[in-house]
Amino acid sequence: MGRLDGKVIVLSAAAQGIGRASAIAFAKEGAQVVATDINEEKLKELNGVPGIRTKVVDVTRRDQVEALAKELDRVDVLFNVAGYVHHGSILDTEEKDWDFTMNVNLRSMFLMIKAFLPKMLAQKSGNIINMASVASSIKGVVDRCVYSTSKAAVIGLTKSVAADFIDKGIRCNCVCPGTVDTPSLRDRIQARPNPEQALKDFLARQKTGRMCTAEEVAHLCVYLASDESAYVTGTEHIIDGGWRL
Where is the secretion signal located (predicted)? Predict the structure, then answer.
């Protein structure tokens, strides 16, 4: 018996990184997974994985999010993973950077929760997991102004939803990773003027001597998606190797 047997789980940003690792981990534990992303080619790599159905969805588009919600008869777990990391202080952040980051990191969660929460309320049960970060209200991080602001807002959104619907069978928690070794991080490192030094800098701030893996974050997400965490709601779950200390 899997830890997630019988559960229907919808998640975004499933084509790579934490989203992909979580989709696979959920399916291995018996869930029926609807894995979404805007990257159709990368998403196709999940086709054929038992328990996973893929669908191209832009979670910043209300019409696409609402159409997805209407397709599904039941949703037990909603995992909002989609995000974007902008590099820079407030002086390096243009209005377009602010708007784009908030749209991807925060508004997408607003749209997804708005679309799926009524279904959960009708079921009298539901579990929402949001991807936040240690770079948020938890820790001030250099050159992460708008990203950290958006993730602090995700923590606030999580607590608000948890408080509003705690007596209606709904749970809402967020995951706050530190530095995770993902394709997205590697792309950002390669985009820096000196990629080799950028990688050394990322590693130097890891008190454990290494970065977190996407699979390690996925293990935590399985716990939050399962009934093992039935008494857990409105909380930030930090997985950062002690980076915040």
Answer: none
